[in-house]
Amino acid sequence: MRRAGSFLLGAIFGGILGGTAVLLLAPGSGKDTRTALRERFANLRVEFENAIAEKKAALESELQSYKDMN
Q1: What gap in Å lies between CA 41 and CA 18, rounded to an integer?
Q2: What is the average per-residue pLDDT within 1-15?
Q3: Are 64 and 56 a contacting pair, CB within 8 Å?
Q4: Summary mean pLDDT of the chain
């Protein structure tokens, strides 16, 4: 358990450091980078919300089929 926690902490810390390095060494200007990040996060949010809605619909359908069996 302790090894898994250490690994997870290291992975999170490495991700933060890597993300910071990418932002600092990005070829675009700060404004361009911020705009691109906003667009990516907006797209990810929409995709995430769509995935949640699809999964919710599938689970509700499955639940209804179980209810119809009884």
Answers
A1: 18
A2: 86
A3: no
A4: 88
- What is the domain partition of the chain in residue ranges? 2-69
pLDDT at 1: 61
DSSP letter for 42, please.
H
Q: How far is CA 11 from CA 2, 14, 65, in A?
A: 14, 5, 41
Q: Which residues contact 28 (CB under 8 A, 6 or more apart)?
A: 36
Rounded-to-integer distance, Cα 47 and Cα 59, Å: 18
Q: How many residues does the structure list for the chain?
A: 70
Residue 33 burial class via C-beta count within 10 angstroms: exposed 0-12, middle 13-18, buried 19 and up: middle
Give the integer Cα–Cα distance in Å for 15 and 31.
22
In the chain, what percentage of residues exceed pLDDT 70?
99
